[in-house]
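Translate sequence into structure tokens.
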Amino acid sequence: MDTEERRRGILDTARREGSVGVNALSDLFKVAKETVRRDLHVLEEHGLVRRTHGGAYPVESAGFETTLAVRTTRNVPQKSRIAAAAADLLGDAETVFVDEGFTPQLVAEALPQDRPLTVVTASLAVATSLAAVEKTSVLLLGGRVRGSTMATVDHWASRMLSEFVIDLAYVGANGISREYGLTTPDPAVAEVKAQALRSSRRRIFAGIHSKFGAVSFCRFAGVGDFEAIVTDAGLTSAEAQRYSLLGPQVIRV
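Result follows.
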């Protein structure tokens, strides 16, 4: 196996498993740990993985995106804390957009159920989880359903969104960076997110620390478009301060 084949194998493993460790890769490919570290460094330079202590995880891109089913198994305690903190920012909003994705789904489930609330969403999972809540009205956007995320996209969803004035949008992303803003792999998804932001008076990003610094294919917003960013303590205080200088309040939980 030559170098390029090994690096493709490392990337395939990372995408299949969700993350990889240097020790395990060294055993799997029968090479020295330092060789694996060099491979991960090259893959990171190409924007394909992000390095962690002792390993790496894949960056979502135009050609690769994790499914909703996979996302529900990763970093659940952190995502639950983020969701609760984001829901606490609801204020007096009566109409709320909740994005597709597992963290936004957790935000939806953390919203108060003892007051009237209208939730607009493209996510079938969000709609299903809130449908039985007595005081919550759910508006599910129409459109083509993406099997990987179980959410609707394309012009049907965007057009429906364009007719609303929404108090608050809870938005997720595949990547967020100070230079490139918020990104996602699929242009159809990016358009729905962008329209949700255009239709909303207030905007909150909720996402785990591993999203930060990652860049995907389609940009749909800038960091300064949000009043608040809610993440976990895995994002360093220094980095949080750099994001806050662009406008939003950064909350680490």
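Note: The chain is about 40% helix and 25% strand.
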